[in-house]
């Protein structure tokens, strides 16, 4: 299983929110590149980079941070947050992202998301399926929908999606454990899907449980920054 550390960006700085609430923001490092290099030095090979300003403004904002990290590390970066147009997508790939996560766009403009899948291929486009009480949440979790997460994912698997990042919004940033049932249900309904768990990871036991489930990857954020898991421990999982 891939360990995928997360860097969330607001105003060019590495931060973490609690349950997607911009009023519950904690800044960790004014230089995200330093954080990314620490991950690389620990032997981790992937990075989940989120433009929180972009998610709020519905356009890519922090592309320079992406460009800097991609240029100064060899990390395989998946980028999310604010990718709402063909131009946004082009800029993100030009700045060095290997994969781009589309969540809100897949809900609100499915034709556009499907065109991205067709043009860039299923290895480059990740479906973002963030849920609150098993219903899809969009726009940096600022908007709830009535779309059931399992139906949403299944629909896109039929259209060729191979990768999904799914966050249980109710768990994110609370360090109370991931939503194991959410991932089991996704596995049951879409057994060939590469599922990346996100949100709630609080210790190595959580990570080991997800690995035992056979997930493709797990995104780890706050647990690293708050010292609940060490980079040395995570390095033992390097795939």
Automatic annotation (TrEMBL):
Subcellular compartments: Cytoplasm
Reactions performed catalytically: 1-(5-phospho-beta-D-ribosyl)-5-[(5-phospho-beta-D-ribosylamino)methylideneamino]imidazole-4-carboxamide = 5-[(5-phospho-1-deoxy-D-ribulos-1-ylimino)methylamino]-1-(5-phospho-beta-D-ribosyl)imidazole-4-carboxamide
Keyword Glycoprotein assigned: no
Gene: hisA
GO MF assignments: isomerase activity
SUPFAM superfamilies, per the entry: Ribulose-phoshate binding barrel
Functional pathway: Amino-acid biosynthesis; L-histidine biosynthesis; L-histidine from 5-phospho-alpha-D-ribose 1-diphosphate: step 4/9
Family designation: Belongs to the HisA/HisF family.
Protein name per UniProt: 1-(5-phosphoribosyl)-5-[(5-phosphoribosylamino)methylideneamino] imidazole-4-carboxamide isomerase
PANTHER family: 1-(5-PHOSPHORIBOSYL)-5-[(5-PHOSPHORIBOSYLAMINO)METHYLIDENEAMINO] IMIDAZOLE-4-CARBOXAMIDE ISOMERASE
Active site feature: 8, 130
Keyword Isomerase: yes
EC number: 5.3.1.16
């Amino acid at each position: 299983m891939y360990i995928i550390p997360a860097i969330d960006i607001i105003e060019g700085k590495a931060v973490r929110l609690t349950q997607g609430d911009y009023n519950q923001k904690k800044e960790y490092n004014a230089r995200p590149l330093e954080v990314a290099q620490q991950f690389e030095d620990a032997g981790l090979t992937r990075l989940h980079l989120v433009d929180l300003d972009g998610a709020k403004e519905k356009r890519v904002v922090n592309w320079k941070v992406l460009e800097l990290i991609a240029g100064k590390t060899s990390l395989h970066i998946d980028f999310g947050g604010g990718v709402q147009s063909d131009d946004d997508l082009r800029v993100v790939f030009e700045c060095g992202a290997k994969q781009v996560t589309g969540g809100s766009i897949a809900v609100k403009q499915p034709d556009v998301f499907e065109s991205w899948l067709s043009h860039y291929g299923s290895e480059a486009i990740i479906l973002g399926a963030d849920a609150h009480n098993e219903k899809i949440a969009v726009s940096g979790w600022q908007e709830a929908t009535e779309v059931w997460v399992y139906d949403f994912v299944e629909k896109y698997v039929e259209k060729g999606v191979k990768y999904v990042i799914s966050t249980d919004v109710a768990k994110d940033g609370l360090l109370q454990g991931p939503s194991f049932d959410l991932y089991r249900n996704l596995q049951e309904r879409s057994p060939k899907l590469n599922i990346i768990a996100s949100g709630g990871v609080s210790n190595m036991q959580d990570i080991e449980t997800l690995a035992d489930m056979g997930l493709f990857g797990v995104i780890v954020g706050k647990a690293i920054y708050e010292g609940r898991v060490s980079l040395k421990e995570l390095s033992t999982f390097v795939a």
